[in-house]
Amino acid sequence: MEDKRASKASTAKTISFNKSQDSTPHYTRGFPRYAPHANHRLKKQSCFPLTSLTIGDRNDNLKPHTPNSAEMSAPPLRVGYVPEHFSTPIYFAKKHYGLDAELIPFPSGTGHMITSLRAGEIDVGIGLTEGWVAGLGKEDGAVEGAAKDGGYRLVGTFVETPLCWAISTGAQRPEITSVESLKGGKIGVSRIGSGSYVMGYVLADQHGWLDSSSGAAAAAAAATATTATTATTATTATTATTATPPVAAGSDAATQQQGQKSASPYSDTVVLNTFEQLRNGVNSGEADFFMWEHFTSKRYYDSGEIRKIGEIYTPWSSWKIVASTACIEEKDDSGEGRKSRLDARVGVLFHKLDQGIKHFNENPEEAVQYISTELDYSEEDAREWLKTVRFPAATEGVDVEVVEKTVAVLRKAGVLVKGKGLEPVSMVAKAR
């Protein structure tokens, strides 16, 4: 998910752990802060290999971890996250259990984290399943300067429950009365290839608005946008859909973009970058609707700024953890096949997140207090959200079946094309 803030991650030196009066953006309150600066860029560095942790050596008991000398001397992991209510266990891991990581907020979402992972600017990302899978499912080498292996792998699970995407239009748009009114309309998205873009095709597929050319156009447009955005070091998102995939249109970018306009189930795809601009866009008529997480949208329904006309759930568990391939070592162990070994700091991260999740589950009132005072949610909405979300007891590992289902849906929608990019089993460095 993406926040209403600017699409660039605010990343700088940690300066405090205490809340300031009024000047701090809501998504950094309670976390180590990063001072935004117009010319500031994430510092590029490689993920330093430490004493390796064989992926699969899972510690199911929340035992205290004693860092070894290599871990003590290495720099903290740079962990990207989306600063919304789902990040509460990360905050608890930092506050109560000493998570030693540089937490970098990405209000613009998973797509921006993919760009930063491939640029070597972060080591780990916690984001949306469909974004991670779509990024690896595109043709190898489609992203200029990215490693042929996609730059990252799925290594953990952060949320077990599906995500509810709310479908929103402007408060004064009486001509839009239902989801069916949206066919042939203008969809607002944060960027081509983002979750808001991908779920638009999932919605169209569920309502029977897609044909084979729509799917081809979606895949071509997403691939073209990924290449262009990465080449300019802008924010890129990757996204998804399902079924028997059509062959992508020709390689000429102009032909692909024209194909998208003519074959899409929507008359136009309007890129608006941020949550705030999406809300403004549906009120001005620049777009007819957009899709965003339900509880993040709800306060704007309550205020009358926008209007809800429907919702759609992801048919997969919603949040995954990925690690840069620089943090993963592939080894051939005595004829048993290739095994992935992680930088030991990633194993420590799993342990601390597990502790933060356990604390979240055992202290719902503290969670409600944090969400309703430090983030943009009411106490009532925070309590309702707690009823809908389930985090795993152990974050290490990913269900390959979930990735396979996500790929199938994204191929049907035309976001991915069979035979291009990585297969599901190759996207996962640690299966559970």
From TrEMBL:
One of its GO terms (cellular component) is periplasmic space. It is found in: Periplasm. Residues 1-30, 242-265 are annotated as: Disordered. The keyword Signal applies. InterPro entries: Ca3427-like_PBP2 (IPR054364). The keyword Signal applies. Keywords: Signal. Residues 8-26, 253-265 have a biased composition (Polar residues). Residues 165-214, 260-312 form the Ca3427-like PBP domain. SUPFAM superfamilies: Periplasmic binding protein-like II. Belongs to the bacterial solute-binding protein SsuA/TauA family. This is Ca3427-like PBP 2 domain-containing protein. The lineage of its organism: Eukaryota, Fungi, Dikarya, Ascomycota, Pezizomycotina.
